[in-house]
Amino acid sequence: MNAPDDPCELRLFNSLTRKVETFRSVHPGEARIYSCGPTVYNYPHIGNMRAYVFADVLGRTLTWCGYDLTHVINITDVGHLTDDGDTGEDKLEKAAAGSERSIWDIARHFTQAYWDDVKALNIRQPAHWSIATDYVPAMIDFAQNIAADHCYELEGGLYFDTSSVAHYGALARSVTQEDGQETRGRIAQVSGKRNAADFAIWRRTPEGESRQMEWDSPWGRGAPGWHLECSVMGEKLLGFPFDIHTGGIDHREIHHPNEIAQNQAFCGSDASGANIWMHNNFLVDRTGKMSKSSGEFLRLPLLIEKGYHPLAYRMMCLQAHYRSELEFSWDGLHAALTRLKRLLIAAERLRDVDEGDADDARLQPFRDRFAAAIADDLNTPKSLTALEDALAAKKVDTGAKRALVARMDDVLGLGLLTLARSDLRIRPKDAAASEDAVAEKLAAREQARAARDFARSDALRGDLAAMGVEVMDGDPLGWEWKL
Fold first, then answer.
1. How far is 169 from 165, CA to CA, in rounded Å?
2. pLDDT of residue 438
3. Which end of the chain is less congested by CB atoms within 10 angstroms, N or C?
4. Is the CA virtual torsion 325, 412, 475, 423 positive or negative?
5. Mean pLDDT on 344-364
6. Residue 129, class by beta-carbon neighbours within 10 Å (0-12 exposed, 13-18 middle, 19+ buried)?
7. What is the DSSP letter of 76?
8. What is the rounded distance in angstroms from the CA atom of residue 131 to the CA atom of residue 121?
């Protein structure tokens, strides 16, 4: 792997060009990333969190490559409508309308819930958490800068004219021919829009109404549009152009094309604001519990209640390439947890070893395989296999192995040299037995095994299984909860 002064040949898939490209930083030795963060009107589900595991691995890889990383993740606490196609209510205003709490309290509560999940998944803190409402004056300035040449007013506020920039919608690749113009293929739902794809830069508060979050502007009292927020915070914190913009694949169709249009208008060129646009694919849930409208949707705390450590979900994400759909199932999560356990058992032997030379020649094949995989558009499935093989390697210096495993884990973020094996043993909320009852059954089974009474031993193992306990003979920890 590479020394800090020797950035690696990192190749990344650019959604804008639909090609894998060699990463070349705008500012030599630096890497600047903007990741679209959550809209904090509700709890994040595990599909939402896949985007941040992906962005975290990207950031860790750039650090491993030797770049000085500046990562920005925004918090959207205003402006995101219930329909990404620029119709409906503001998601925060709607949440506040059905609650006794203020919109500000709701935003703080769900922001903290998101941050709790970030910590639980061992996602590194970015350089900046940019809160949208902190940047409203800058958003008004940005809008004023582009309004004359690229915007027009309607009763509902200030709208961006998508025909005023070149190649609108190129990121989404979903264009149709309409009245001789290239426009996005979706229905205009706001009366007076010049083009179906035009979108709100500033949403004016209707006459006689008020919002909990609203500000004065040249276009009336109101609130900024969702798309405007990310353009402004990206420019303010990273400068145009910056290196990489990330988000879920759903952002590729509307939100990010609209950002790019605003960035083009602001910069006065075809520049998209970021050199590379990267998108993780969906987490697919066949149970239908991923949607936040489904009630008890799949959240990280629910996984913990079922007896799964959060890093089992991180492992599950790493087992699939970020651009591939990942299907969620409880069996798949359990398999990921089992794989993580095996890694921890192997890594535990290295914890008390003094770190040696990670560049030991005998470890070169594992080091090269890992480096080649992670540099190939973040191929985490192959990287995991290289890590497992390195841990299993025989007749190598243990200090050197420890150093190499630490470097690999710095990229994958599984905490292999800090997480205790016992931390993975989480009692499910609805487990039928207490830990004392489990311990009593296990002790009786050990006595039966010692007396070679295998019939009784098998019967006790069956009793434990009925209680939701999986017994793993030969494992020093002894047992695990499994529902």
1. 10
2. 83
3. C
4. negative
5. 92
6. middle
7. B
8. 21
CB atoms within 10 A of CB 398: 14
pLDDT, tens digit, 9 for 90 and up, residues 409-425: 999 999 999 998 888 88
C-alpha to C-alpha distance for 66 and 407, rounded to whole angstroms:
12
Rounded to the nearest 10 degrees, how much is the dihedral formed by the CA atoms of 423, 425, 431, 435? -90
Nearest to 184 by CA among 227, 139, 140: 227
Q: Judging by beta carbons within 10 Å of its beta carbon (0-12, 13-18, 19+), is residue 325 exposed, middle or buried?
A: exposed
380-392 vs 310-318: helix axis angle to the nearest 10? 110
- Whether the per-residue pLDDT at 236 is higher than 70: the answer is yes
Strands (E) across 272-342 are located at 274-280, 283-285, 326-328
Cα–Cα distance measured from residue 480 to residue 478, given in angstroms and rounded to the nearest whole number: 7
Instruction: Quote the pTM value.
Output: 0.91
341 neighbors 424 (Cβ within 8 angstroms): yes
Element (H, E) at 365: helix 364-375
149 is written with which tokens? 């040449």
Closest by Cα among 200, 186, 187 to 151 = 200
Q: ∠122-124-127 over CA atoms, to 5°?
A: 165
Task: Note the Cα 440 to chain centre separation in Å.
Answer: 42
Q: Identify whether 241 is preceded by a cis peptide bond (ω within 30 of 0).
A: yes
List C-alpha distances in Å: 9 to 18, 184, 407. Answer: 19, 36, 17
- Which comes out higher in pLDDT, residue 170 or 471? 170
Q: Is the dihedral of CA 205, 211, 213, 215 positive or negative?
A: positive
- pLDDT interval class at 186 (50, 70, 90): very low
**pLDDT tens digits, one per residue of 3-12:** 333 357 999 9
Question: What is the spatial distance between Cα 234 and Cα 32, in angstroms, rounded to a whole number?
Answer: 10
Helices 226-238 + 136-150 axis angle, to 10: 110
Beta bridge partners of 274: 242
Q: pLDDT-based confidence at 84, cuts 50/70/90?
A: low
Q: What is the DSSP letter of 333?
A: H
- Pairing type for strands 68-75 and 87-90 reads unpaired
Question: Smallest Cα–Cα separation from 403: which of 392, 413, 390, 394?
Answer: 390
Structure tokens at 439: 């311990």
pLDDT per residue as tens digits for the range 243-255: 999 999 999 999 9
Residue pair 313/121 in contact (Cβ under 8 Å)? The answer is yes
